[in-house]
Design goal:
The chain is an alpha+beta fold. 24% of the residues lie in helices and 22% in strands. The protein is globular.
């Protein structure tokens, strides 16, 4: 994506955010896992500073970094927020992100003695209108963790970058023991390990709200909401990863995990699904700037 196109995108997003805020001001002065193998047949459903609205004229440095992260295309263009080292699209209705996009390298994921994630604090993203913002109080006594979408461990180059992953716009309610602290964490570590083999790893993460068949034989999408702001609890989460080798070849891996306790002995490969499955369920197109024919392997199989 060219710098000019990216500037236009950010400016258009800024106009939308600014218009909305101005308009609002004057106006007021254990989940069952579906059979994922059946999903390909489903129809399609359906800086920037983290604490400030998108700047109408982004700096050249930030435009350059965004263009690096989003090299292979935006999955969608709804309510884009850009941080120093990742980009997200925010779902104002559900109070969690549609997707979060990261560019991970060996250097960004390397442990750094000067960085301590225990010093980071979870905090609301004040760039989001108060109507649609999640708060720490929403998670209090909810039974769910504030689960990272862009993992803190992927951004260990500086304390500032780790701190930025703790904005609540980057969180979603996740089952704690058995998922966020275990199976999901295992998947995050695996993605970081890919940087030992590949120069560049592009990772898109997000929530899913998947249907399941009820006793009456009909399919329903049901999910819990928590807190005063009704933050949605996703039924599942996805990760779609594209790895770029030194010779320019590309490989893709895509995963869907149910937001529930997962046994330790379940291998990560059992959660691999075709990327098209996630695209149909999420209403997104991943890595749209690169033809699938250019990807040599998908989930370990020759494309």
């Amino acid at each position: 994506m060219s710098t000019l196109k990216l500037k236009k995108l950010v400016v258009l997003g800024s106009i939308g955010v600014t218009s909305f805020i101005a308009g609002s001001y004057f106006e007021r002065k254990s989940v069952d896992t579906p059979n994922l193998k059946n999903y390909p047949a489903l129809p399609i459903f359906g800086t920037v500073s983290a604490a400030a609205p998108v700047s109408p004229v982004p700096s050249e440095t930030n435009v350059s970094r965004i263009s690096q992260i989003m090299k292979y295309g935006f999955p969608g263009l709804d309510n884009i927020r850009s941080f120093d080292n990742y980009v997200l699209s925010y779902d104002k209705r559900n109070r969690v992100a549609h997707w979060v996009f990261e560019h991970i390298t060996r250097e960004s994921a390397k442990p750094n003695e000067g960085v301590d994630r225990s010093l980071s604090e979870f905090k609301p993203d004040e760039s989001i209108h108060p109507y649609f913002r999640s708060q720490n109080s929403d998670y209090l006594k909810s039974g769910y963790d504030r689960g990272h979408l862009a993992a803190a461990g992927n951004h260990r180059s500086s304390q500032k970058l780790v701190d930025q992953t703790f904005y609540l716009s980057n969180m979603a309610p996740q089952v704690g023991v058995g998922f966020n602290r275990d199976a999901w964490c295992k998947l995050e570590r695996y993605v970081r390990r890919l940087t030992r083999t590949y120069d560049n790893v592009y990772c898109c993460t997000g929530p899913l709200y998947l249907p399941r068949r009820e006793a009456d034989g009909k399919n329903y999408i049901k999910y819990e909401v928590i807190g005063a702001n009704h933050v949605a609890v996703p039924t599942h989460f996805f990760k779609v990863v594209v790895c770029e080798a030194p010779d320019g070849s590309l490989v893709m891996e895509s995963y869907v995990m149910p937001n529930q306790v997962i046994k330790d002995d379940v291998p990560l490969a059992s959660f691999q699904v075709p990327p098209e499955t996630i695209e149909r369920a999420a209403g997104l197109l991943f890595f749209d700037n690169v033809a699938r024919s250019k990807i040599s392997r998908i989930n370990g199989k020759k494309n």
